[in-house]
Amino acid sequence: MFLLSTLLSANGTALAQTPVSIAPNSWGAGSPMPTALMGPFTGVINNKIYVVGGENGSTVFGLNQVYDPASDNWTTGSPMPTPRAGGASAVVNGILYTIGGQTQSA
To answer: Least enclosed by CB within 10 Å: which of 20, 66, 89, 93?
Structure first.
């Protein structure tokens, strides 16, 4: 299982995000995400973590950052048609669905 740990600055801006693997009795950190974000949509498809959209406190992004834990490498996928942050997401039949969210920074 993987999750993203986020380091925030004093004003709440995301400084760094790193995938963290969780296995029985062990933890491991992966390569930092190229662009740290708050409120991204996430999901796992074919053993890769997709981190889509999100914001940095002043800008909402449509980024699609993909982490492959097997190679500990980040790549960039096709961006969202409409940048969004802070909604919900789910993977159904190998498709990452994003629901709701905001199109402007709070």
So the answer is: 93
What is the spatial distance between Cα 15 and Cα 74, in angstroms, rounded to a whole number? 17
- Among 28-32, 62-66, 80-84, 100-104, name the one with the lowest average pLDDT: 28-32
| CA distance linking residue 29 with residue 21, whole number of Å | 6
105 in a domain, yes or no? no
Residue-level pLDDT at 8: 46
Instruction: Give the distance, in angstroms, between the CA of residue 53 and the centroid of all CA atoms in the same chain.
Output: 8
Average pLDDT of the segment spanning 49-58: 90
Flag whether 104 is in a domain. no
Task: Output the six-digit token pair for 21.
Answer: 């693997």
In total, how many domains does the chain have? 1
